[in-house]
Specification:
Order of helices and strands: HHHHHHHH
Low-confidence stretches: none
Shape: globular
Number of strands: 0
Structural class: mainly alpha
Strand content: under 5%
Largest sheet: none
Helix content: over 70%
Mean pLDDT: 89
Distance between the termini: 37 Å
Length: 145
């Protein structure tokens, strides 16, 4: 995902007077710019950094939904809308079968050791952002048995 796409969509939401959508996209743009400044790439923001920030914000929005009290339906609806908008921009994640096939194919040498720590270190370095870390951990644990 490119930052320019987010900015263009934010402007479109402003013109459409869709405040909740504009706010959600605006928070993404702000988070990306902050991460770029922290990473020292303020002027040339790579798409990988944008994707990484989007996934982080998506996880944060999911946690807000999960921790919201049941009686606060107004807040829950607001958090859900934010989550839905952010998920539109999130990169596609691999499912469990794709993760298992990828690990079995690419990391057969590490799997042969049976050392989960070594396997996770190698796998996470290459699969970060392509699949959920909990899912990768689960698949690696099953493959180590």
């Amino acid at each position: 995902m490119e930052l320019a796409v987010l900015q263009k969509d934010m402007i479109a939401a402003m013109k459409a007077k869709d405040k909740p959508r504009k706010d959600a996209i605006s928070s993404l743009v702000s988070a990306v710019k902050k991460a770029a400044i922290d990473g020292g790439c303020r002027d040339d923001i790579p798409a990988s950094l944008v994707d990484q920030v989007i996934l982080k914000e998506l996880k944060s929005a999911k946690e807000q939904i999960d921790t919201c009290p049941d009686e606060r339906t107004d807040l829950r609806a607001e958090y859900q809308l934010r989550y839905d908008v952010i998920s539109e921009y999130a990169p596609k994640q691999m499912d469990e079968d794709e993760v298992r096939a990828y690990i079995s194919e690419k990391f057969s040498a590490e799997l042969a050791t049976g050392n989960k720590g070594v396997i996770m270190k190698a796998v996470m370095a290459e699969m970060k952002g392509k699949a959920d870390g909990k899912l990768i951990n689960k698949v690696v644990a099953e493959l180590c048995k």
